[in-house]
Amino acid sequence: MPDDEYSGVLTTAEHHAREWLNSVAERPIEPEATPDEIKDALGRAFPDEGADPVAVVELLATAIEPGLIAMPSPRFYGFVIGGTHPAGLGADWLVSAWDQNTGSRAPTPGTAAVEELAASWLLDLFGLPAESGVGFVTGATMANFACLVAARGEVLRRAGWDVERDGLQGAPRVRFFAGDAVHSSMVAAGRMAGLGMPRTVGADGEGRIDVDGLAAALAEGDGGEEDGLVEAGPAIVALQAGDVHSGAFDDFAAAIEVAHAAGAWVHIDGAFGLWAGASPSLRHLVAGFERADSWATDAHKTLNTPYDCGIAIVADESAMVRALGAHASYLPVPGAISEPYDRTPELSRRARGVPVWATLRALGRHGVADLVDGLAAAARGLADGFTRIPGLEVLNEVVFTQVCVAAEDDATTAALVEGLRHDGVVWASPSRWNGRGIVRFSVSNRGTDATAVARTVDTVERVLGEVRAGR
């Protein structure tokens, strides 16, 4: 592979990447082009002849750029996704260049070692059991899925059923419980794991699970028989670290005690909120979470790595390996240390844990805490600023990184969302919460500092004034 085969495309890609990164903080956040316009620019017909790779990269960059949304902007609050830390971006580029299939330790010791270090650092950072199994998956949904599959296998094993050998048909029913504010990714993961929709047991106004409702539901069975309640059987309980609207955290100490007393497996969906455990000033939000059986999070959210950095953690690594492990004559004989493919649903995958290690190494323990604290501080700053805008109400208790606001009526709130998008300075998501139309601000970008907060508040006040003046 001669150097000149790659030098041109890498130089071109770097040029466009730099232009994008240098523009993203000030460019309008909303995309300028539609998918159909992008297809027209790229050319819709599949060509008979190939093209020079440099020209292909140039076409790709120039045609797509008008259709890019400035998600890395420090004033993008639309979804719970962070910007990219420089160390994570650089590591991600190397991962693509190295092209290592990090499924097995023996052929790829370099990337496997980095991922194992990242895993041990994460467990240390969160204060979770050091012997836990850690798998690097695509995102929070697959992290939840991997943990639920491990949970399913273990609770059925305790009930005398080997689901890895015999499948789900004929197995005892696994009861699946969650609070009323359960996230859609957990619902999807449960569905894919064959658990069906979770039975919701109630929640308070901030979305925290009703612990008494959970205890009652665990005690009574699933109520699925026509002639009355069935006998309580295997159970999985899903808790939340960070509600997607309020940012609230379940009462882990109380809920885990209730669930374990009933013999249930406890899983915590901590897509963005698990990182509160890395901050001494915010760790009270996750008090008792170390007693759960599994945890899921996503480094591309709060840690600000590139995408494709979900993390599945299971306290009993053997349960994870039984559920997810691969077996074939051409694969290494199982050793004292489990293989990467034993802890994820995939056999072949990129070394997605490497950017996690790089970002952790660049930040250090104190830097991670500062990052998490900074996001929470920015959310409080937004809430303080919004409360000073006449007619705009902050609806949630701002305990972490989520801020939900509403104007005097749903129509004005919806118009505010549209006005912000067309204005281009700030992007936030519409939603419905507790019966009201809202604008949800998710603070996830490390660049959302006091200046970005002040500019956001000023923009919201200006656009809201324009909305009202236009009526």
TrEMBL record:
SUPFAM superfamilies the record matches: PLP-dependent transferases
Residue positions, PTM N6-(pyridoxal phosphate)lysine: K301
The keyword rRNA-binding is assigned to this record: no
GO molecular function annotation: aromatic-L-amino-acid decarboxylase activity; pyridoxal phosphate binding; transaminase activity
Gene Ontology biological-process annotations: carboxylic acid metabolic process
Obligatory cofactor(s): pyridoxal 5'-phosphate
UniProt keyword annotations, A-Z: Aminotransferase, Decarboxylase, Lyase, Pyridoxal phosphate, Transferase
InterPro entries given in the database record: Aromatic_deC, PyrdxlP-dep_de-COase, PyrdxlP-dep_Trfase, PyrdxlP-dep_Trfase_major, PyrdxlP-dep_Trfase_small
Family named by the database record: Belongs to the group II decarboxylase family.
This protein's name: Aspartate aminotransferase family protein
Organism listed in the record: Agromyces protaetiae
